[in-house]
Amino acid sequence: MLAVVSASVCSAQTAGRYRIDSQISRIEIHVFRGGLLSGLGDNHVILLNRFSGDAEGPPAGPWAVRVIGEAESLAVTDPSESASTRQEIQAAMLGPTQLDATRYPTIEVRSRSLLPGDTNQSLRMLADVTLHGVTRQVEFPIAWSQTGDVLRASGKKNLLLEDFNIRPIRKFLGAIQVRNEFELIYEIALRRAP
Description:
Elements lengths: L15 E5 L5 E9 L9 E5 L2 E7 L6 E7 L3 E3 L6 H12 L11 E11 L5 E10 L2 E14 L2 E11 L9 E2 L4 E17 L2
Antiparallel strand pairs: 1-4, 1-12, 2-3, 2-12, 3-6, 4-5, 5-7, 7-8, 8-9, 9-10, 10-12, 11-12
């Protein structure tokens, strides 16, 4: 979700330790309907409300980044649904047949390596993503900028539920279902630690 920045790839970033400012950062998940009767289902917008992390880079050499989110803080925010419907969807999402947030309370991203992106202000980060007790390597596109002591990283990435041993919800023999693919959108701000 954030850049692992090596000095040789991105020398404009100031070395040091940075912490995520969750007040001005946002992690959003879009889940889409599918199936023959998909018109009867709904797409969902989900926010990860509690997350933290840091990025640390020496004056020379690779940076390391870690982001940890609390699975139980995932909240369905669909504006077209009633509060009771949102709560019902959220309970199913966090329950034992889906994310099983009680058994797997954290979502974690740990950087592995970094490659230059298509522009001077972009990167491609390879990271280990742990969700639902399963760890997968994922490459994230990152657009980055730095203003003073604040680093900003943003992008979006499509992932698959089944890659993390989560079976998409199916109703009416699959005529209405959640699609396997979901979209992760991230806008992360990091402040330089004293």
